[in-house]
Specification:
The protein is mainly beta. It has two helices and 31 strands. The chain has one domain.
Length: 386
């Protein structure tokens, strides 16, 4: 019976990097000189020798682990688009940053979780896993991120993720840096940074947030979503010319909204307010519910907001040090910096917000038209100068 049970276990292969190159097909890179085969294997990394390795072909793994004895930061590159059929967990016990998938398109690794429903772990421990691979799965697959460290998840264009399951974030920090067709569920205690690569606008399948979601870049959410009552959504206004979190289906609002306004705007007037596009709501209905609290950092202070007695969808802040205050609309998703409250009749603030929103849209269209005209009229001059 013991012998029969032993046959069922996957063969473990431990990377030593002792070969003359970093290929997985070089037996000298593995303990005992044995090569991982096309069957089911457990692959383990230890030490710090030959930190860059290259996998080619197709493998089926029931575990990929960086042991506590791995003192270096390894990079697993791909050769000609290899595929790892992942039937188990990815674990980082090293406390180091470990990279799966390389840094360039030619180095990508395909990780296929198959069509079976189930949960697979990515346990980053106290370290970091940079998952630069292209992930494929069924709708029934859940990847659960564990560990107090960091998961960098995603591959930038021109690659595309094929992960249609659920990314369940339960601990630590996750940086989502590319489009993800699947769902994201951020639970209490975790931090999700929506941080697309510079200049891109990516789409995720749906978002359920009961943790802390930090909106750094521009992200669209295509499916029904929920910002739970025990969650927090944070924005920074470093980029104020775009709507940075767009819900294309109905979203249930709840929890806390915090905005870090990184500059002050003492010259903001009613005719020329400073407007930030935080949300775009495009569902039917666009939203349900309401945020429970709204706060903003401005001028070295944290300003609290209260709802307008005449319109509960409008939140109005306390006065900032420069005499300005802020108004947030849950209908348009805009945050506006305007003069101090005594200059505005609150009962009309909803109409004013709608007018400011249309004004900003017109200005954005005018800038786009001017840029298009400049590109046409200046192009011949650029050729002359060249």
């Amino acid at each position: 019976m013991l012998c029969s049970a032993a046959v069922g276990y996957a063969a473990p292969y431990t990377w030593t990097g002792a070969g003359t190159n970093g290929l997985w097909t070089n037996g000298a890179n593995w303990t005992g000189g044995g090569l991982p085969t096309s069957g089911t294997n457990g692959v383990f990394y230890s030490g710090s020798t030959r930190l860059s390795g290259t996998v080619g072909g197709t493998y089926t793994l029931d575990k990929l682990q960086f042991n506590s004895t791995a003192t270096g930061s390894f990079v697993i590159n791909g050769l000609n688009g290899p595929t790892i059929n992942m039937q188990g967990d990815i674990v980082n016990q090293s406390g180091q940053r470990q990279t799966i998938g390389g840094f360039a398109n030619k180095d990508r690794v395909n990780i296929n979780y198959g069509t079976a429903s189930g949960t697979r772990l990515i346990d980053v421990g106290t370290g970091t896993i940079a998952l630069n691979a292209i992930i494929a799965s069924s709708h029934g697959t859940t990847i659960e991120k564990k560990g107090t460290g960091t998961l960098d998840f995603g591959v930038a264009l021109p690659n595309a993720q094929a992960f249609t399951g659920t990314l369940a974030l339960t601990e630590g920090t996750t940086n989502l840096i590319a489009a993800l067709p699947g769902s994201i569920a951020a639970s209490n205690g975790t931090i999700l940074n929506l941080n697309p690569t510079a200049g891109s606008n990516f789409t995720v399948g749906s978002l359920t947030n009961s943790g802390t979601t930090v909106v750094i870049g521009t992200t669209s959410v295509s499916g029904r979503s929920a910002l739970a009552s025990n969650g927090t959504v944070k924005f920074s206004t470093a980029n104020d010319d775009v709507s940075r979190l767009t819900f294309l289906a109905t979203v249930d609002l709840g929890g806390a909204l915090f905005v870090d306004v990184t500059q002050t705007y003492p010259d903001a007037t009613l005719e020329a307010p400073q407007l930030f596009d935080l949300f775009t709501f495009a569902g039917d209905p666009p939203t349900n519910g309401s945020f429970s609290t709204v706060t903003a950092a401005y001028g070295g202070q944290t300003l609290s907001f209260a709802t307008d007695p005449m319109d509960s969808s409008i939140w109005i802040s306390t006065t900032a040090p420069d005499g300005r205050y802020m108004v947030f609309s849950q209908t348009t998703g805009d945050l506006v910096v305007v003069p101090e409250p005594s200059t505005v009749v609150f009962a009309g603030i909803g109409g004013a917000l709608a007018g400011w929103h249309l004004m900003k849209q017109r200005r954005a269209r005018q800038r786009s038209r001017r840029a298009a005209i400049d590109s046409v009229t200046l192009a011949p001059l650029a050729g002359v100068r060249g």
